[in-house]
Sequence to fold (1447 residues):
Amino acid sequence: MEVENPPNLGRCTVHVVDQTKRTALLGLLVLLYAVALQWAWSTMGDPYSDAVEEARRIHDSFMKEEAKKPKRVEWVEDEEEEIFDIDSVEEAGSRGKWKADEADYEDIADTDGLDGADDGSVQFDNDDTTNTTMAAKLRKALPSETLPSAGAASMLFLVVTCNALFFLLCHWYASFKAATQYSPAKKVTKDCHVLVMTLAHHGEPGISKIFQNEVTGDMTFCFQRRNYIIKEEDGRAFIVPVSPPTTDSVQSYVTSKGLEHDDVEKRFKIYGENRLSIVPPTLFTMWRQQLLSPIPVFQFFSSVLWMLDEYWQYTFFTFFTIMLLEFGTAFQRLRTLGQLTKMSMKPTAVLAFRDGKWMEISSLQLLPGDIISLAATKSKDKQAQESADVIPCDCLLLGGSAIVNEASLTGESVPAMKDAAPANETKALEMEGVHRIHTLFSGTTLVDTKEDATQTRLPKPSNNGIICCVLRTGFGSSQGGLMQMIEFSTEGVTGDSRETFYALLFLLAFAIIAAVYVFQKGLAKGDRTTHELLVKSVLIITSVVPRQLPMQMALAVNTALMALVKAGVMCTEPFRVPLAGKISHTLFDKTGTLTTDTLIPAGIVNADKSHELMPVNKASEKAAIILAGCHSLVASGDDETSIVGDPIEVAAIRGIEWRYDVKKQTASRGNWEDKEKIVKNIEMQMKAYKQTTKRYKELAADLEVKKKEAKAARDIAESSKLSVQIKHRFHFSSKLQRMSVIAEVRDGRSTQQLCLVKGSPEALSKLLNDSKPDWFTSSYTKLMEQGMRVLALGYKPWDGPSKAEREQVESNLTFAGFIAFSCRIRNDTPAVVRSLKESDHSVVMVTGDGLLTALHVAKEVGITNHKESFTLEAGDDNVAWVQAIGEDKARLAFDVSEVADMHKKYDLLTTEDNLCKAADIVGEGMWSVTQYFKVFARMSPNGKAKVIRSLQERQGAHVLMCGDGSNDVGALKQADVGLALLSGYGNANTGDEDKKDEADVPAEVALNRHQQAMDEKAKKVAAEKRELMKQKQQELSVKQRQWLEEEIQAREARGEDTGVFGQMAAMKVVLKRFQDEMKKEEREVSKVGNVFAPTMDDVLASAEMDSLMIRPGDASVAASFTSRLPTIKSTVDLIRQGRCTLLSALQQQQIMMLESLISAFTLSALSLEGARQSERQMMASGWLLSIATLSFSYATPVDRMHPERPLRSLFHPAIFISMAGQAVIHIGCMYRAVQMATDAMGPEELASVVEFHRKAKLNEIEEEVDPDDPLAYFSNAFWSTPFKPNLLNTVVFLVETAQIIAVLFVNYKGRPWMKGLSENHALFLSLFITFAGIAYVAWAVSPELNAMLHFAPFPDDAFRWETIALVATSTFGTFFWDRLATAIFAPRIFRIMVDEALATRITDIIPIFTSLFKVCFGFIAISTVNPLLLIGGYYLYNKANKKELGE
Fold:
């Protein structure tokens, strides 16, 4: 039964447990086991009988051919010999051993059974060595007498495997479990289950049990920590989240009087605890989950098969490696979950109004509908304060006002002011809309609260806090949604899963063909049993997945995330990292993104006849009163004199040089506190320099100026009597584009009430009375064309109540003037924009600012580059292009089909209103040309998201959105990659110092220079802070003695112990005081310097915001990526890293395919000749290849983006044909290597190798054990497994290892997207070590090492050189073929690669030769075992490292 799913879930279906299916499956399983076991029982011993019969048949044939030569068979038992006829072999074979004397050889065939039967052997004496082949067919080990037939064993193996696979598939795939164990339900009941398919990257699907709620009777289920209800209405079933009513009228919440006892019980059963915590599983549980994931299970299965082939050491080594890697992954996941757990809110005591009285309850007991009282604490312990001030649920503010830090939700560090909801509003509550200003969200922090002393509806709470009504709790709250997003986001970064599936199918087909060929050839040769051949065939098939695959799959995401963290970018959705490599369109907000979030007052236009732009401190009295009183500024933390808020309001009040007392909500002239803070910061910074230095003298001169300014400001404050006190505030509305207040103005002589209004000129133009001057429109238009942000000011006398309707206040206003602001552009913004355009990215501005202001900034930063700009203008029934700037604005006819041509000649602009109107007139085709607009102005949050959606759906674009603040949240979420910039850095990363004319320099070169300058500045700032902290520590150390004496005296005065234990207690108190003072000094010193701050004023602004910033690692719901740097350069870092990750994932797929082909063919070649791989060699190569694979972790992005995108498909001709050619070359070289080795060994030596392995299986090979060595037996069991070194194994191992290293070398394509081959020293080091190691082994430089690794000596130098030639052919032949395929099928990329190669300098390849020298020197030192060489090498290496670190 399918039900309609909510937007946050995928397809949902209701199922009921199907006992018939389960019984049928169980019956089928029992039947299969019965058939398999019966077949195994009935055929038990058949392989043994067949083997004996085959021996008899071979013997008969042999006897006929050698009839002239006498044969005799002897029975050996207790040193006695008896003669038997060959026909009694079967009978005698079960009692003892057969022996035949031969002139040249003796052969034993094993009949070792599963139950420990005696050994038997058939042997023949013959002087004719030409009959070796016939005799060899009798040498294979006889199977056990209890072994069933190959078909029965295969069926039993398949039944057991399918049984295990069935349970694993049920564990891995909820849909498979539902299909096999459930059936669709016809009606929703409490006996049903819900199969929930999740959206992409939103966790794993699951099956949840349905319960019936005791209170409501609804059918509910829990999935991903959220409760859902299944409802049935009008013949349809649908799912809705369990959520309290949050859309009732505002009045219903305001008049609520809390919950009664019965309501509490009922609501608790519906909504549960207000618990926002995640209990992390134990490390063992997490480890077990990792080990049960598909890839480890497959590798365990493969290892078991190796064990069946007597590879005990390698199997345990593989088990250990897998478990170690998965343990590391589990540990990392647990750490990540631990970070998420830190976001959990700790239970706190909350005042709740229940049963008609205030009572203290735990925050866990809060329920929707509760009335609570919240108060900001004033604790000296910052951590304790932050924990206590976290809002425990989503709630509506009913009484009082609050200042809240919503950084965790919006990314804005500017606190938001919250007012009580109006009591008489009958509209439905809109938490995320118009009533957001009255809503407190869980997880945000109370900065300050102010109770409503006038409310009498409820008794006054004891904590004097604000009164709120609880709306949402637990994981249904805003903080719960954020935690869900992080917990259940997919962490894997892989390539295209469909392409990976097709690639695995291709590999599987190759492996099956190779396995079938080996099986058939093995049967034809007859020197091994069918069971051995089956094991070998399955091993070949399982070699499809390389041993290094889990490590390779994890490298991309881990490398990307670590690089982003170093770049100051936090990520909550790692799966979006490779999406950044596909970005085609980049969209930016203006204020706080392209420019700073601090506005500089450019001037004021007073309402007089001059209407000239004057300094802001020359504002008329009425204009100054409006700017000082019409705002929403709040205090920064405990400091009532430090104000924060909307940057435009902070800039305005500082520009007119007024001060604002937040507690009294009163503004007055003279901002001496701010200026004195700057003086203190300069004095502190001067302590880090000596008086003779240039920097000290500069600071001293600046100090004198700031002291004079502070004194002048204090004098003004003392002499002026003018003040403005806010009585009621109507907050800024983006829809109305204005805000207003009712204020009381005092001048020392009289008191009057005024309505003060400010807003956009377009909005206030309609509200002004006859005082509106003729130059109103032309004046503000001229200012906007200069890139300024303009606000109009208005006022009127007021004799009404302090709480009135907004429409009454904002009408019939008297014009008081304009104030203009400018935003500084970030130093590196033009370079970033230019670098994005140079790398073929479309750069667009989407902003809520005015069109002309946005156009000016767009020109400054390089988004627009044509001489003329046209804006879209839509009337009632027509659309036209209008010239954006100029007195005589030209008009052009509008035609959707001509927009593409228009944008080549002009810069196209629009506002949201005109765009939507044009879409209504022209049709949906209007949304298909949004890609040609450069500036979108006056955009609402929904408008920004709609533009991004049109680019994604209409043009198939991959969009990156970069913005700050709550206005950008919708767009950041809609974009493929959203990057949120934290606000609150003031004018950081601005200034004109060190600016040079870099128009002719590539943009990213300029960016890199700027980054180097910032790094140098960071070192200087860090040095200053260290010096200051050193001085502070010395000062406090001196005081520490005095504190200890004071504490002892205080203890003595209190009559406490002052002996040894008393002094220890006093020292403990003093030490705590010392640590607290040091922390306080650290906070003060952190305000001294900011890497990005150009002036001391900006240092002050940055320091004031520091306490409100999101801490490192904290998540922001605003976007999947969050940058802590005041620069848009993070977009470049993100795109670079995305391209690198995308390319790295693709290359890993190539490597996986080629490694699998090489492994399958190698195993097939050895199996055909009856040879085996040495376990020591396999373990050594496992470590070597794992280390070589780690070279991909050095694949870092280049410092310059290229216009050409990397290839993204595994089946692109340039990639697929390259892989096919490489596979042919590698397989051809391996075939030649096998041919060389077998020819050199000859049939006799190959037969002896097979014979040795046969004897080893019979445990007839005894290793010498030193009886005096207590570890000898352990070493013999786990290290000295019998193995006969042979030329075939040695050559194949060396060539295979070299080929896999060559695969890494050839398929590593770096530039122009990531560091090139010559820069990846780890990869070259692996290559050099492999080549040198092959030569080292081939020439047997160290016989001891060769013996330890089971290497056989090469016959002569010609063989050695031919082996080296094969290795070189594999490496360089595949390299040239790959580049040839690229040149033919991706010529543009090949030209870029050639250009990059030609640009390589001698200095770039010196490290390669250095690596080569290190490898050669190391092998020489090891060969000679010369301690002087070793010591000298270590000295040179250490010296080189110190030099590199010094540089």
The chain has a mean pLDDT of 77. Residues 401 and 450 are 5 Å apart (CA to CA).
